[in-house]
Q: What sequence folds into this?
């Protein structure tokens, strides 16, 4: 399993075993804090009765360490990993809520014969698990499960999910009985009884909300500045992704205030000016004192890298190609970690979905048979109204961001449409959405489904494929607490991301914020069309619907992401299972 994820942890490898319990921890290390052997993992703590394998960063580890040192905990290293062990020894499971960072870790408590799997509240770091033959198996990537002696079969529903969502939504994966641990939760495994329970440590909602626009902007600005400052903590080279949009520009400018000439920023551009944001990037870099590198990606680069990109995918996705390239150049630039602007759109109203919730409410008043009839309308966007006939709120997300409608999915996969409808009606969705309306509801859908399942997942496995760590200040726990403490009218003004713009107008060039949203996109339609990677007729020869859809793509009548989805569905194959003797594994990198 560790070998399968060596790319994400190129700096070190370690193992820990407790033969009496049949327990094995494995770790591949990407060293960013305490680069010495003191940061080696798995790490033991408190008379060697605790063991941890940890993936991520704890940004408030220095404050926690100071607090724990004051009450006598004997630290031996400079790592944030040891702080997790010390915090657990001192406060037990309540320590998980004290951690501000991005993390996925397994912590074994020998004295209580318990092992905990713990995942951060924002779902930044992935953590997958499976329970077979009264054994717990877990990993940072799904592909590692296939390297065990256990038998994992294909999840028969993954292609349906993928064709509808454009990703595989948690808790599901491509493997049956391999699940994603829910963000802000921990799995407690009892070794004596071979039993488990999953428990939330999500923060409680704020007791009072800020209603003053000026106070809201001031609090947001100070909180994000603090988040960027602590996200820059590292003992290895760190930089910033600069796309030229509002979010990455603010992160870059704030990072420059704390790092100055040592800051490295990097951007990607294209010869096709339709996709290039270089002029906006220059407006920002003219205000910074660090070193900026810009890289030109062309069609040949894409064609040469296509197979590597596909190999890097841990799970099928209709996105992530851009992330692969930007992390490739970060690696070539000598960086070990980079800051990204992921999260701002979802938290502060940057997407069209925020203004469409009223339309959803209006459409949902129509009889279900009319909503279902909409699948026969000529427009692809209008066909998605069909999803609003579901009683499950997941239909709202699929109306907003869905790919193919059930009727088309049924034809692509040669299954019944009723089977698809039943699958989505039964989709497990957090009940807290029932208490949300309007922009708050849109934010929950965008954050909990799109961001966590698409953006963060893609970013993690594409960055790890190059041995790069991506940090996301907009998802800092203290910043999230600030955001959630602002009343909806102030948090979501009429102007998209208006609160964020107001908070940083003094440092952000007007040309950057006063323009239409562009998004970080590549000229993939042209490249896929010319390169022919996804349009080979023999791939789709056994299905008429797929053939027609690819023909539409060739005529410019189908978005490249849908054609790319078809390609992945029709070229997927189960990887042969390798046999090893170890029974219980984890990989922290």
A:
């Amino acid at each position: 399993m560790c070998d399968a994820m060596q790319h994400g942890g190129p700096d070190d490898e370690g193992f820990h075993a407790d033969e009496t319990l049949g327990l094995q921890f494995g770790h591949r290390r990407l060293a960013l804090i305490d680069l010495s052997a003191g940061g080696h993992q798995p790490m033991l703590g408190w008379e060697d009765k605790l063991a941890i394998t940890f993936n991520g960063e704890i940004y408030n580890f220095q404050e926690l360490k100071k607090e724990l040192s004051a009450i006598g905990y004997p630290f031996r290293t400079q790592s944030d990993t040891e702080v997790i062990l010390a915090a657990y020894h001192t406060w037990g499971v309540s320590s998980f809520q004290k951690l501000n960072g991005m993390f996925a870790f397994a912590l074994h408590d020998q004295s209580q014969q318990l092992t905990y799997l713990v995942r951060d509240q924002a779902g930044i770091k992935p953590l997958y698990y499976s329970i077979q033959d009264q054994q717990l198996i877990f990993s940072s990537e799904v592909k590692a499960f296939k390297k065990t002696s256990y038998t994992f079969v294909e999840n028969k529903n993954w292609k349906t999910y993928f064709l509808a969502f454009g990703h595989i939504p948690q808790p599901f994966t491509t493997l049956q009985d391999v699940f994603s641990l829910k963000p802000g939760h921990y799995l407690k495994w009892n070794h004596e009884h071979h039993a488990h329970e999953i428990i939330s440590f999500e923060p409680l909602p704020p007791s009072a909300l800020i209603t003053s626009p000026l106070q809201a902007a001031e609090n947001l600005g100070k909180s994000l500045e603090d988040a960027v400052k602590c996200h820059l903590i590292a003992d290895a080279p760190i930089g910033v992704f600069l796309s030229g949009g509002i979010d990455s520009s603010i992160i870059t400018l704030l990072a420059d205030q704390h790092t100055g000439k040592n800051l490295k920023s990097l951007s990607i551009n294209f010869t096709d000016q339709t996709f290039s944001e270089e002029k906006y990037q220059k407006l920002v870099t003219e205000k910074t004192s660090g070193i900026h590198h810009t890289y030109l990606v062309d069609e040949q680069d894409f064609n040469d890298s296509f197979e590597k990109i596909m190999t890097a995918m841990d799970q099928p996705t209709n996105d992530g190609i851009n992330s692969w390239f930007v992390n490739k150049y970060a690696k070539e630039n000598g960086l070990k970690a980079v800051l990204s602007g992921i999260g701002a759109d979802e938290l502060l109203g940057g997407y069209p979905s925020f203004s469409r919730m009223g339309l959803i409410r209006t459409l949902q008043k129509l009889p279900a048979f009319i909503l279902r009839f909409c699948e026969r309308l000529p427009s692809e966007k209008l066909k998605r109204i069909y999803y609003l006939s579901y009683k499950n709120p997941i239909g709202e997300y699929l109306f907003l961001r869905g790919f193919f409608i059930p009727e088309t999915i049924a034809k692509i996969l040669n299954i019944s449409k009723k089977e698809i409808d039943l699958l989505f009606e039964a989709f497990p969705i957090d009940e807290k959405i029932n208490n949300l309306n309007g922009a708050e509801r849109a934010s929950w859908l965008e954050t909990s489904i799109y961001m966590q399942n698409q953006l963060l997942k893609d970013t993690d496995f594409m960055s790890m494929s190059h041995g790069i760590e991506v940090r996301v200040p907009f998802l800092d726990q203290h910043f999230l607490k600030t955001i959630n403490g602002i009343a909806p009218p102030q948090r979501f003004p009429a102007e998209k991301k208006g609160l964020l713009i107001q908070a940083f107008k003094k440092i952000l060039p007007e040309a950057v914020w006063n323009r239409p949203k562009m998004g970080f996109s590549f000229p993939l339609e042209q490249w896929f069309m010319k390169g022919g990677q996804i349009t080979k007729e023999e791939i789709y020869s056994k299905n008429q619907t797929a053939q027609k859809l690819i023909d539409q793509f060739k005529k410019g009548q189908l978005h490249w992401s849908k054609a790319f989805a078809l390609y992945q569905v029709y070229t997927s194959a189960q990887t042969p299972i390798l046999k090893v003797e170890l029974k219980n594994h984890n990989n922290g990198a």
